[in-house]
Specification:
homotrimer; 345 residues; Udp-n-acetylmuramoylalanyl-d-glutamate--2,6- Diaminopimelate Ligase, Chain: A, domain 1; UDP N-Acetylglucosamine Acyltransferase, domain 1; 3 domains; 11-stranded parallel β-sheet; 10-stranded parallel β-sheet; 28% strand; flat
Chain lengths: 345, 345, 345
């Protein structure tokens, strides 16, 4: 961990405007609630504004709109959350993995593994696999034949990458991820399902992070594609033949059914589902738990979730939803009646 | 991979009617978008009809209704998707696994493993486990005591099967699947949860495919049962004591809560949830993201999802949903008023 | 397994009132449907009352309200399900694991492992990890540096616990669970996502059960906390910085987004989602598939799910939901019209 830095030194590296004592020493980030002297916190979500008054942090990062709310030494940034992200990276750098192949790893003699790579206990590297420089493969990972992993990528323990899939540089792939399992391709024939072989692969771009237990299926014929800079949270499911456009972020439990095409710079909320064979343009934001059932051609924010309520109220309203058709007909009848009155007069 | 075949040879094996040059040579399947000469594509979803005009495939499989839309050599089938599935199987056969037990696998001396079976690196086979002929157990799999796996079944790396569970023949089980973990049996007693031991097992029939990271819990007392020919996509959860009837297919993220009974030949859409202790008859189709909260006694298609919309529209309509009761009362008041008018006259 | 006990002996240990032959011998629990002589079943859910008439069980556990419905020897308890849970524990005790470290496990010399602990094949125990007495670590588990596991805890095969996380006593953690992967902390900056290092840990209390393939993310700065007695089903996702209060139970597929605070003694239904930065007080019950989008300050039951219906009905009603705003305006117009009539008179 790097030594302490003054606010002035931090600003010299990361930008931002220092207000107050620029010589205060900072050695780690902290939260508004728990930071102590020597730690720097941040305020981005106005919800936590009250904590600013009581924090014992040594300094804070905040936006121009809130800089007057504290007397603490502070760094003012137009994007305090991104500033804080870089600041935390400064104090918590990702180390270069200690190179070496554990004695219990099983590495095919036909795999390409540079001296700088690290392969932990029990990992299995298949025939023809190619690892980039400084790649780190966690314990118990399994890379199938001809898998390629780009420079500086890190797989945590228990990741499985099926044969033929390719992952770019600087990936961070968390435990339990499965990349390249068969897509759900089955054709019904006289009441029995016939399997459609899944002969495509999964191609993951550079700078992609994939959360724990997420699954990305290989393509039926062509490849499933995750473009550069995509960030996937935990327990996401990406179906076969999907494209997720560059710099799109998807929250936990969200899913994309087969052959959907998601644009760039989208955000998909937690537990949102994109149905199959749809197209979503760039810069679309899907709210949590929303089901997207047709293509979206215009950027914007889209939502659809039944509002929760006290159980008894929900029971009443849900029953009415199931009979909305009748309610609408009754309104129509009233309108006719009144229109008829007018005619009668 | 088998050598190239003419359309005539393909039709001789798989049926279908050849239209156009029956001697064109095909060596692999392809998609309408990316197939080249020597590859055969298919058209089943009318959505992709436009691609038929531009495809560079050497031939296509399609239905009688669309056979006139192209001049390419073609095979006409009443079920082009199932035909294509079999065609792809022809060019992409599943190999018989290379038999042998990896030196790093841990196989109990009390397990039964035929010479034809394959056990990959680091897999653990418990006491009393029985593997069928040509079974393939992927790296890092764990089979508990007395697990049985039928002939020709394949477990991809990192599958866990708890003690006492049985899997039929020709299963394909993808990475990260957990079969036989404890069901969620807890009884509340004075604010504390008391665990109900889960002493049943999981019984999986023949010809079942299970997608990556799916979980199937063991029964509380009796067994959880997945019947023959069931196809489960990724990240599905099957609760304890459930039965999934033969030839039912469930899409990703769908789930069945404890003690529900699902019929045969059902399809359960992505992220659909069947609540506990329900019965669903054969030939029921549940749409994606639908929550089934009571038993279904009639075959048919059932749906229930809040339609998505632009965020601002959703906000307005969702607020009204929460006050539907009041709207209905206002309509009733109007009806009374008008009925009263009539009486007054 | 313990020898058979008479109903009188069972009641002497666990309480309850015996009705009928107190000397009938019981050696195992069973379900109403499949129990045979020598087995004891239970009736808690009135839905299964009809099975009471046909059961071949040797005895049953039931509530005072139903004790007259059978002539079988029976134990009457105010809480038959909890009684049955303890009874099943009596006949199906969790064994103390056979101590010992498998020859293929990789245990850091800087880890603390008592003689009473069990470490199965291929498990990896990191530097500074500390295991309590009688801890059992399944095959292929991976404990990162400085992980602590309390006495009598059991990890099934293929569990991953990232560095620095701590788990209390008597935990039962099922296969595929990932504890301590990075939370989904990303800050947008000019269209690119900047990673926020996740330097907190996960702290799990005593007597916690965690279902298969569940994921619990480490905190951004402070820790993610699962308090004593929490029960988590399969495939749950707990985001960073969340607190789940003591004795709360969450069903399969449910999830809590980052920084939410869930009270004690809550129940969260299957596939329910709690959005981020919310507070939920103690004794809140969230129905299955409900999305909680704002804080809940009052105990009670909360629901919100679109009621399912036959597809055609749903189509009609869902379309009307998207135009509720217009329907409400039409009702308002009718009210105005009628009010205007009144004024005219």
């Amino acid at each position: 961990m790097p030594g302490p830095l003054t606010l002035a030194q931090i600003a010299a590296r990361l930008g931002g405007r220092v207000v107050g004592d620029a010589e205060v020493l900072i050695s780690q980030v902290g939260s508004l609630e728990s930071a102590r002297a020597g730690q720097i916190a941040f305020l981005a979500n106005p919800k936590y504004r009250a904590s600013l008054a009581t924090t014992r942090a040594g300094a804070v990062v905040l936006a121009p709109a809130t800089e007057a709310l504290t007397r603490l030494p502070r760094i003012v940034s137009d994007n305090p959350y991104a500033y804080f992200a870089r600041l935390s990276q400064l104090f918590n750098p990702v180390g270069i993995p200690q190179p070496g192949i554990d004695a219990t790893a099983i590495v095919s003699p036909r795999a390409t593994v540079p001296q700088s790579a690290r392969i932990e206990a029990g990992a299995v590297i298949g025939d023809g696999a190619r690892l980039g420089e400084r790649v780190s493969i966690g314990a118990g990972c399994h890379l199938g034949a001809n898998v390629a992993i780009g420079d500086d990528s890190r797989l945590y323990p228990s990741v499985v990458v099926y044969a033929g899939c390719r992952i770019g540089a600087r990936a961070m792939i968390h435990s339990g991820v499965v990349i390249g399992a068969d897509g759900f391709g089955i054709a019904e024939d006289a009441g029995v399902w016939v399997k459609v072989p899944q002969i495509g692969a999964v191609i993951v771009g550079d700078d992609v992070e994939i959360g724990a237990n997420t699954t990305i299926d290989r393509g039926t014929i062509d490849d499933t594609v995750i473009e550069d800079g995509v960030k996937l949270d935990n327990q996401i499911q990406i179906g076969h033949n999907v494209r997720v456009g560059a710099h799109t972020a998807m929250a936990g439990f969200s899913g994309v059914a087969g052959s959907a095409d998601i644009g760039r710079h989208c955000t998909i909320g937690a537990a949102a589902i994109i149905l199959g064979h749809l197209t979503i343009v760039d810069h679309v934001h899907v709210s949590a738990a929303t089901v997207i059932s047709r293509s979206i051609r215009q950027p914007g924010t889209y939502s659809g979730v039944f509002p929760f309520d006290e159980h008894a109220s929900w029971v009443r309203n849900a029953a009415l939803v199931r009979h909305l058709d009748e309610l609408a007909q009754r309104v129509r009848a009233l309108e006719k009646h009144i229109a008829g009155e007018g005619k009668d007069e």
